[in-house]
Amino acid sequence: MKKPGVWLWAAALTVYAFLYLPLAIVVIFSFNDSMLNAEWVGFTWRWYATLIHDGEMLQAAGNSLLIALLSSACATVLGASAGIAMHRYRFRWLPLLVLTPVAMPEILLGVSLLLFFRQVLDLTLGFLSILVAHITFSIGFVAVIVRARLAGMDESLFEAARDLGATPWTTFRRITLPLILPALAAGFLMSFTLSIDDFVITFFVAGVGVSTLPLQIYSMIKVAVTPEVNAVSTLLMALTLTLILVSTRLAPDVLKGRGAV
Amino acid sequence: MITSAMPLLQIRNVTRRFGAFTAVDAVSLDIEAGEFFTLLGPSGCGKTTLLRMIAGFDAPDAGELLLDGRPLAGIPPEARPLHTVFQSYALFPHMSVAGNVAFPLEMAGCAKDEIRRRVAETLALVHLEDKGAQFPHELSGGQKQRVALARGLVNRPRLLLLDEPLGALDAKLRQEMQGELIRLQRDVGVTFVFVTHSQQEALALSHRVAVMKAGRVEQCDVPDRLYTQPANRFVADFIGKINLIEVEVVAASKIQLHLRAEGLGAIAATDPRPLRPGDRGAFALRPELLRVHAHGEAAGLKNHFSGTVRELLYLGDVTHYKIALDCGLVLEALMPNAAPGRAKFHEIGDPVAVSWRHDAGVFLHEPPAR
Ligand SMILES: Nc1ncnc2c1ncn2[C@@H]1O[C@H](COP(=O)(O)OP(=O)(O)OP(=O)(O)O)[C@@H](O)[C@H]1O
Ligand SMILES: [Mg+2]
């Protein structure tokens, strides 16, 4: 019974190599003391220093962080409300309606949001349109996480609170909120990650004036993949990884077995 | 038990339907202040549904509930002066034991000092004085149960509803908690409405028991009346072991009742009710009221029938016999093994006779369905 173990290990290693080798190369070359992504010359922090002095890049990073913070805050509040409603009212179409944007091809969502902002709202594309778009695709994730948390909880907890003298609002404040707090935090971090990393939808709704980190990286590599791009990608990767780790810590029951996002 | 003119809780013709299904069917009960009242019945008979309507989580489709003579309709759960102990305990997992017990006091707006004092007092009452700082997941099942009781009792509600609170405990702990419940109820004087499907628990704990079946109350009485004077076949069968014999009234005069059973013959019984020849029903006889005699012994007594020992279960203090009578009827009998050196009176296959006093059994009159 030893053999299958070895083969399984080999297969798993291959898969992980496929997943992480390209990322590893980006990370390695971000420290390479050469303009070319060809061979290892020597270790340097140079590209990170360049990054700090790149005004456009800093502007884009600032936009990204602000949009991520605002959109995930809004998405957490709205998504939690949707999750609680889905749990409370068990209406068959509600979960489907919230989840559809999650499963929808990003390009479709991008195009339809673009049409909506331009044709229906006649909005000037920019910061606000990006913000709204990010809230839109994040809500579903928060709703699912919050609902899963509620579904795992004993319904009589909330009845017990009412029974012991708490009004519906006090019950929400003293019982429901503390109990779904880990789910809220996980949902917030998840939304933050999605927002920071999003390219496709942002690309459609950004307009001309405003740029985000992924858009900025894209515009740079249209010229050439410079080590500076490697550096900013490495930072983005590190941030994403940290957020994912923290959110899986906060709501292990929710993210387990739900597949890659 | 204090009996005042006004019952604490009046349940009047309460009905609750789920679609076409009637879960609680025109139930009427009066619960007195200070009483340990039990709702007993098999699974699905509507006990929890009735309790939830009293607590205010659900509302009757018809009928009304009165607490201290005032209607409960429209009053939300938090405004009703009663608490529930849930089967799952429903302890708040993010609060300590003391936090859980303090919760109802905080909701009532008590001062900090008073909360601290009463929490300590109530935890002492359930022997958990040193567990206040722990969290529910650190407690055993029995301890959680005690916390749930403390939380329900801490601000002395008018009424405490308990939905199978001992259901999740093992047999030994269950017995321990039964004693504890009786003591608590007596000490704090809070009226208990207790739900169980264990007849043993109901008889052991309660002042009065309402036996329910399919949403209806079959009989509501004190435990020993329920046991000795069951109102019908369901109650007789549900509570304890009992022999049921199909009979017909031959003659009834004053309190003497002459019955006939198919194959068996004449049975002499007592019954003060005005019964008429031809009335049908079941004759119910507790196994411990049957006497088992050796063949030929005590012949000539009334209600004396011969048969054979078919099965026998020696239980130490008593022996449980199954006796096949000559007519084919099988009766169960319970004989104490008190006499020294005579643990077993009879063996399987022994020819024996059974008899019972004329006042041992109960005739369960069943008027024909129209
Ligand atoms: N919300 C509901 N919707 C539909 N049917 C229900 C609902 N609540 C209860 N019932 C039905 O009503 C009947 C009585 O239920 P209830 O929970 O009161 O039984 P119970 O006597 O407490 O049983 P148990 O001893 O198993 O707890 C059951 O047949 C149940 O299926
Ligand atoms: Mg129940």
Report on this model:
The complex is a heterodimer of chains A (261) and B (370). In chain A, 77% of the residues lie in helices and 0% in strands. Chain A has 261 residues and is mostly helical. Chain A has a single domain (54-255), classed as Orthogonal Bundle (MetI-like fold). In chain A, helix 3 (55-89) runs antiparallel to helix 8 (168-197). Chain B has 8 helices and 20 strands. Chain B has helices spanning 47-55, 97-107, 112-125, 141-153, 171-188, 199-205, 223-228, 233-238; strands spanning 9-18, 21-31, 36-40, 62-67, 70-71, 82-85, 159-163, 191-196, 208-213, 216-221, 243-253, 256-261, 265-270, 280-285, 291-294, 304-314, 318-325, 330-336, 351-355, 362-365. With 370 residues, chain B is an alpha+beta fold. In chain B, the strands form 4 sheets. Chain B has a 6-stranded mixed sheet, with helices on both faces. In chain B, strands 13-12-11-14-20 form a 5-stranded antiparallel sheet. In chain B, strands 15-19-16-17-18 form a 5-stranded antiparallel sheet, with no helix packed on it. Chain B has 2 domains: 9-233, P-loop containing nucleotide triphosphate hydrolases (Rossmann fold, 3-Layer(aba) Sandwich), CATH 3.40.50.300; 241-364, RNA polymerase II/Efflux pump adaptor protein, barrel-sandwich hybrid domain (OB fold (Dihydrolipoamide Acetyltransferase, E2P)), CATH 2.40.50. Classes of the chains: A mainly alpha (261), B alpha+beta (370). The structure holds adenosine-5'-triphosphate and magnesium ion. Adenosine-5'-triphosphate is lined by residues 18, 23, 41, 43-49, 197 of chain B.
Query: What is the mean predicted local confidence, pLDDT of chain B?
Result: 90
CATH class of chain A: Mainly Alpha
Give the uncertain stretches of chain B in residue-range form: none
CATH class designation of the largest domain in chain B: Alpha Beta
Label the structural class of chain A: mainly alpha
Helical stretch tally of chain B: 8
Instruction: Report the principal-axis shape of chain B.
Output: elongated
Count of discrete structural domains of chain B: 2
CATH superfamily of chain A: MetI-like
Return Rg of chain B in Å: 25 Å
Rg calc of chain A: 22 Å
CATH architecture of chain A: Orthogonal Bundle
Domains counted in the coordinates of chain A: how many? Answer: 1
Give the SSE string of chain A. Answer: HHHHHHHHHHHH
Q: Trace the largest sheet of chain B across and list its strands.
A: 6-7-8-3-9-10
